[in-house]
Amino acid sequence: MITQAGLFLLETLTGFLTFALLLRFYMQACRVSFNNQIGTFVVELTNWLVRPLRKILPGWYGLDLASLLPAYLLQVIFAGALTLLHVGSESLAPEILLPLLLWRGLLATLRFSLYLLIGALLVQAVLSWVSPYSPLSLPVSQLTRPILRPIQRFVPPIGAIDLSPLVAIVLAQLLLIFL
Q1: What does the alpha-carbon distance between residue 117 and residue 143 come to, in Å, rounded to a whole number?
Q2: What was the pLDDT predicted at 57?
């Protein structure tokens, strides 16, 4: 019971920080302004980890690796904790365990990215109906635009209703099945 509670807390903390780090990464990659409520929250939450890493780990083709790498490493650490709890340390050889943990961390990071996309698409859909001029509408729209624009070429609006977020969510769910 205590192990389950500790695992739950570890999963919650690593998941929350992973989401924040990935949101920071994608906001920067999509050129979303950090001068809003979401951006300020994400920067203040993750600065303690990202700023020191930026001195060591420079960006690569405009991508903020100092935000992406800790998100990935958090998932590797969590996968390691799960493996040690379920399998034990003596069951797997280190030459098998390390690639397995790195692979699981990569898959988990991709899964978190898809969950983040689905969440942003849902927030955008709700805001477009409830409060289209909300201060959060612009950053969420900028975040989802690179995904929705190619879909909108093939799926035109029907009666002034844009179905591209629905198609994007279905495609993201389909990808989650394979991850």
Answers
A1: 9
A2: 85
